[in-house]
């Protein structure tokens, strides 16, 4: 039996438990995360504090190590899965307590493209950072994006493309938003392996995001700016 197996989560004090949650998220241990979330809630922690101090705190470490090439896609997917376990417990409670939402993003892979691993990872990491995510899935024509923007009223539109043949479709979506006078209503973030900064600029996106960690940081950045503008 490893030392890890001997740890009884309920016997740790709050600080130790949060530290243990960071480790368990990093290791993708979903059941342990679910148990720890339950313990913190029983101890009277507000759901929002569990989300931000324990789960988001842990995912920030995962995100940074992913960006720096210390963690790879399979590990990040496992960590994100563990995070989702904790989030599923907190989601209804957060809705009840009205915890502040960081922002909302509609995201989808563009028409003609069925790659979704990267998009899913971005969605999960963004959820981990407190964003509400509406995932449109794969192979989205411009109509799907427009409908979702209308009904969901997000702050951010995210688009993903993995093929050199599908990435130009992002411009079709952005140009349609311009034509309809809606472009400035949303922050448009784009990503996918064949893209780069120059392409992002050329099609009129607000930013190109190299990976999920950059997507989280960029989205947070734009939300801060938006809030500062509103309160100024
Ligand atoms: Co395809 N495929 N594939 N493929 N596939 C690539 C993209 C390719 C580069 C492989 C190669 O030839 N070397 C190549 C494209 C070549 C090109 O366009 N120049 C290719 C091809 C050709 C094809 C097919 C055409 C093959 C065929 O049928 N002949 C076909 C296309 C089908 C279609 O879409 N119409 C096809 C199919 C498939 C599978 C179905 C088998 C599978 C997809 C499974 C799935 O997604 N559910 C697949 C896979 C797995 C790949 C590779 C191997 C891996 C992609 C991936 O998941 N990477 C890929 C090779 C490669 O990229 N090295 C390849 C891991 C993922 C975490 O990274 O998606 O880059 P990524 O996402 C990152 C960032 O890019 C960024 O953050 C993510 C996380 O860090 N990001 C965003 C992504 N989206 C974002 C959105 C944002 C922000 C950031 O919005 C805010």
TrEMBL record:
Mind telling me which SMART domains this protein's record contains? B12-binding_2 (SM01018)
Tell me if ATP-binding is a UniProt keyword of this record.
Answer: no
TM spans (from-to) = none
> Mind telling me which SUPFAM superfamilies this protein's record contains?
Cobalamin (vitamin B12)-binding domain, Methionine synthase domain
The record's keywords, sorted A to Z, are: Cobalt, Metal-binding
Q: Known InterPro entries for this protein?
A: Cbl-bd_cap (IPR003759), Cobalamin-bd (IPR006158), Cobalamin-bd_sf (IPR036724), Met_Synthase/Corrinoid (IPR050554), Meth_synthase_dom (IPR036594)
- One GO BP: homocysteine metabolic process
**MF terms in GO:** cobalamin binding; metal ion binding; methionine synthase activity
| Family indicated by similarity | Belongs to the methylamine corrinoid protein family.
Q: Which PANTHER family match?
A: METHIONINE SYNTHASE (PTHR45833:SF1)
State what protein this is by name: B12-binding domain-containing protein
């Amino acid at each position: 039996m490893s030392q890890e197996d001997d740890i009884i989560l309920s016997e740790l004090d709050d600080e130790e438990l949060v530290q243990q949650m960071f480790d368990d998220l990093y290791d993708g241990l979903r059941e342990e995360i679910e148990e720890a979330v339950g313990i913190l809630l029983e101890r009277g922690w507000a759901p929002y504090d569990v989300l931000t101090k324990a789960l988001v705190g842990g995912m920030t470490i995962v995100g940074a190590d992913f960006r720096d090439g210390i963690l790879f896609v399979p590990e990040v997917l496992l960590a994100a899965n563990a995070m989702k376990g904790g989030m599923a417990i907190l989601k209804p409670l957060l809705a009840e307590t009205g915890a502040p939402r960081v922002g909302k993003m509609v995201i989808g892979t563009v028409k003609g493209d069925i790659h979704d691993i990267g998009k899913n990872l971005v969605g999960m990491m963004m959820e981990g950072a407190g964003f509400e995510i509406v995932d449109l899935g794969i192979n989205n024509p411009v109509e799907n994006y427009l409908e979702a923007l209308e009904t969901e009223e997000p702050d951010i539109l995210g688009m993903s493309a993995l093929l050199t043949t599908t990435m130009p479709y992002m411009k079709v979506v952005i140009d349609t938003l311009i034509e309809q006078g809606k472009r400035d209503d949303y922050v448009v973030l784009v990503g996918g392996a064949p893209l780069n900064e120059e392409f992002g600029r050329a099609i009129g996106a607000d930013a190109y995001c190299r990976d999920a960690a950059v997507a989280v940081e960029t989205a947070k950045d734009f939300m801060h700016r938006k809030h500062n503008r509103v309160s100024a």
